[in-house]
Design brief:
The protein has 404 residues and is α/β, with parallel strands linked by helices. The chain is 46% helix and 10% strand. The chain has helices at residues 2-28, 103-106, 108-126, 133-145, 150-167, 172-187, 217-230, 247-258, 271-285, 302-315, 334-347, 365-373, 394-402; strands at residues 205-211, 235-239, 261-263, 289-293, 323-329, 351-355, 377-381, 389-391. The protein has an eight-stranded mixed beta sheet, with helices on both faces. Helix 3 (108-126) packs across helix 13 (394-402) and helix 5 packs antiparallel against helix 6. The longest helix has 27 residues, at 2-28. Pfam families: SRP54, SRP54_N.
Length: 404
């Protein structure tokens, strides 16, 4: 029995060993590669038929040899890049302003075109055979209409009546000479009309320009820079009008045209700070004159007028102002006198600049504003040109009023 059991165990072991050998040999064998895909066989082109079997030829688009893109050997044509064009920076040309000597005489024709009504009207009235009370009233009305003012008009009429009575005969030449003399006296030839811009030992001349919006204040500041440059002065411009859009750009453009340096600050910034920096740079650069353009505030705004006074006080921390020029629109008449009065109370105006005298302005405003403030008209504007700002000369002005 034991022998039988042993035989069975041996048989089982042998069968298991044989089974393992068979499985290992199968694992070592590689699977055959998949059969290749059936290739696409393209049928050869049909042979051309001839004779009766030939097909009718089809219309095909044919290209000439010029239209065929020929191979170039695989080399792409080299692209030659042109060097970038470097734009030259435009350097503003420095202009040479017109000399100021006798400028008003040269502009006399322009002034006389709008002012002759006053002079010619007076000469016509004085040339009448009988100068009765009605005629003298007409003379007074003519002077008042020309914005001369009540008190100056009464003084002029009284002197004219007395001198015409003494004169007796009145030839046109005598009347013209008489009227010219009296008008020059009325304008005030004895007043000091020099714009004080002389530099001192340690500081430049300092000029502050004030006025209401629309009077041409910034333009006048730029034109005054041209006047000073024409007289051989070096100028620094202070763009302290920080509230009006593009005011600083406008002033800087005026400065660049004559080579004047412009000091400016951020839009809406502190005007007093800009004015202070302008005077500081003027001293550091050794400039002859510093021109400060201030904001054109309405004269009815008390707070803003106080701020204008602040600008003046801040500037005077460097040095006292040499000039405070008030720019007035000559066409505003009595309204201009109200403006002048308020500005004079705030900043101690030392001189007047009358603009737009070439338009509908009446020449009598020169007399009225001088009487109102007790300060002289120093400059007048006679047009839109860059050199149309002229020093005021009483004799030339009166000659333009009464004509030749």
């Amino acid at each position: 029995m034991e022998i039988v059991i042993l035989a069975v165990v041996i048989a089982v072991v042998v069968i298991g060993a044989l089974g393992g050998l068979v499985v290992g040999s199968r694992r070592k064998k590689q699977l055959p590669p998949p059969p290749p895909a059936t290739p696409d066989i393209t049928a050869p082109p049909a042979e051309p038929h001839v004779g009766e079997e030939a097909e009718t030829p089809r219309d095909e688009t044919r290209r000439t040899i010029e239209e065929v893109d020929l191979p170039d050997g695989g080399t792409a044509p080299a692209t030659v890049e042109e060097p970038p064009v470097v734009e030259e920076l435009e350097i503003p040309q420095i202009e040479v302003p017109e000399p100021t000597a006798g400028r008003l005489v040269r502009l006399r024709a322009r002034l006389s075109r709008s002012q002759n009504a006053l002079g010619k009207g007076l000469l016509t009235l004085l040339s009448r055979e009988h100068l009765d009370d009605d005629t003298w009233e007409e003379i007074e009305d003519t002077l008042l209409t020309a914005d001369v003012g009540v008190q100056p008009t009464q003084e002029l009429v009284e002197r004219l009546r007395e001198r015409v009575k003494v004169l007796g005969t009145r030839t046109p030449e005598e009347l013209r000479a008489l009227l010219r003399e009296e008008l020059i006296t009325l304008v005030g030839p004895e007043m000091d009309r020099e714009v004080k811009t002389e530099p001192a030992a340690s500081k430049p001349g300092i000029v502050m320009v004030v006025g209401v919006n629309g009077t041409g204040k910034t333009t006048t500041t730029g034109k005054l820079a041209r006047v000073l440059v024409a007289d051989g002065r070096s100028v620094v411009l202070g763009a302290a009008d920080t509230f009006r859009a593009a005011a600083a750009d406008q002033l800087q453009t005026w400065g660049e045209r004559v080579g004047a340096h412009t000091v400016r600050g951020p839009e809406g910034g502190d005007p007093a700070s800009v004015a202070f920096d302008a005077v500081k740079e003027g001293k550091e650069l050794g400039s002859d004159v510093v021109l400060i353009d201030t904001a054109g505030r309405l004269h009815t705004k008390t707070g803003l007028m106080d701020e204008l006074g602040k600008v003046k006080r801040v500037v005077e921390k460097h040095a006292p102002l040499d000039e405070v020029l008030l720019v007035l629109d000559a066409t505003t008449g009595q309204n201009g006198l109200i403006q002048a009065r308020v500005f004079a109370e705030v900043v101690d105006v030392s001189g007047i600049v009358l603009t737009k005298l070439d338009g509908t302005a009446k020449g009598g405003i020169v007399v009225a504003v001088q009487r109102e403030l007790g300060v002289p008209v120093k400059l007048i504007g006679l047009g839109e040109g860059a050199d149309d700002l002229a020093p005021f000369e009483p004799e030339a002005f009166v000659d333009a009023l009464i004509g030749d």
